[in-house]
Amino acid sequence: MSPGKKADDSEEADDIDYEEFEDSKLDEDTIDIGDEGVSGLDVTDLPGVGPAIAKRLSEAGYKSVEAIAVASPAELAAAGSIGETTATKIIKAGREMLDIGFETADLLLERRRTAGRITTGSKALDELFGGGLETQAITEMYGSFRSGKTQMAHQLAVNVQRQPEEGGLAATAIYVDTEGTFRPERLEDMAEAYDMDKKKVLKNIVWARAYNSDHQILLCDQAMEMAPERNAKLLVVDSVTSHFRAEYTGRGTLAARQQKLNKHLHHLQRGAEINNMTVYITNQVMSRPDAFFGDPTAPVGGHVLAHVPQTRCYLRKSKGERRICRLVDSPNLPEGEAVFTVVKDGIRDV
Ligand SMILES: Nc1ncnc2c1ncn2[C@@H]1O[C@H](COP(=O)(O)OP(=O)(O)OP(=O)(O)O)[C@@H](O)[C@H]1O
Ligand SMILES: [Mg+2]
Fold first, then answer.
1. What would the pLDDT profile of 22-68 be if each residue is shown by its tens digit?
2. Cβ of residue 311 lying under 6 Å from some atom of ligand 1
3. Ligand 1 centroid to residue 321 C-alpha, Å
4. Whole-Å CA distances, 252 to 100, 248, 257, 303
5. Whose CA is nearest to atom 5 of ligand 1?
6. Residues with a beta carbon under 5 angstroms from ion ligand 2
7. Which listed residue, 5, 20, 64, 319, has the most CB atoms within 10 A of its CB?
8. When comparing pLDDT for 230 and 329, which is higher?
9. CB 284 less than 6 A from any atom of ligand 1
10. Tens of pLDDT along 313-345?
């Protein structure tokens, strides 16, 4: 499906049931995952990759030349049961086929210009984000409970489906839910507020519940693979840290947790770039009893999360239904704050 095609009139999108992603779990028989990346090149076109290696790589999630080109030699060697030297050669060939490597800044600018933006539903917030949440990047929203992180995720899943002139990308969404807080009823509320066809809106969102951190990683990899064929331009991971936090307790396990989380986030970043999609992740805050000055809360995940996501925002509740979103870190936007509210219709200006 071409990126410009409208989500509404897409036959493929019509076939998607948001429960299908969950039901299929990781069973590839029920969900047809395209074996071709954006380039349409076949993995067996790579020198040294025969059907047997291709099969092993595919089973490990390396189904396209794109996925192989950005893998690390060690990862690929393990996945394909091949030597690291062979893996390095395969990766190099993949990069050459796709023309990945250094490029001049004007080309990068051109690619950045193809980045789209998804409106949040609030003008003040959109302004803070320079026009909405950007594709080719991860946006992390961290904040305490009921601060609106999940509501924002729902709103984005609806808004990505709207037409570009309405602040959308005429695309679909993939939602990975780790906390069991995905609510199709809320999507209906939000769709109704825009006079959208509720049924279509739900069909354009595939949803899966992740039961542990490994499952979450697998689902995200699967999401990145199916993004092109579903014209998905938004991946939600709500929340990205809760399983990691629950599974790795105690000081001794911290390094292992951070390493795994770091890898997970780098995969998400890669997928965001390859698929020109927005990755929206949420994160809880933990209290810092040792903090004497400033805000006594800190996002879970510490410095790993601080360095991977492109844009980090801190959400907090204010008087009444008001919420304050502070842009904490962004490579190209000034720090700032915006006030918005959560109502039945969704995310709105105050
Ligand atoms: N139908 C609705 N109408 C109005 N406001 C609503 C509605 N549904 C939810 N909200 C608002 O959204 C809040 C919940 O926000 P949300 O679930 O996004 O929090 P969160 O940041 O994801 O919290 P957590 O860390 O617990 O996951 C509610 O407290 C309420 O203020
Ligand atoms: Mg939530």
1. 333 333 332 233 344 556 678 988 988 999 999 999 998 888 888 89
2. no
3. 10
4. 39, 9, 10, 17
5. 343
6. 149-150, 181
7. 64
8. 230
9. yes
10. 999 999 888 999 999 888 888 889 999 999 999
Contact 61, 87 (CB under 8 A): no
Q: Which atom of ligand 1 is nearest to the CA of 344?
A: 3
Q: Structural domain boundaries of the chain?
A: 109-349
Q: For residue 88, which of 73, 67, 66, 70 has the smallest C-alpha distance?
A: 73
- Please report which ligand is nearest the Cα atom of 145: 1
CA of 332 to the centre of ligand 1 (A): 29
**Among 2.60.40.10, 3.40.718.10, 1.20.1260.10, 3.40.50.300, what is the CATH number of 109-349?**
3.40.50.300
pLDDT tens for residues 132-180? Answer: 999 999 999 999 889 999 999 999 999 999 999 999 999 999 999 999 9
CA dihedral 73, 74, 77, 81 (to 10 degrees): 180
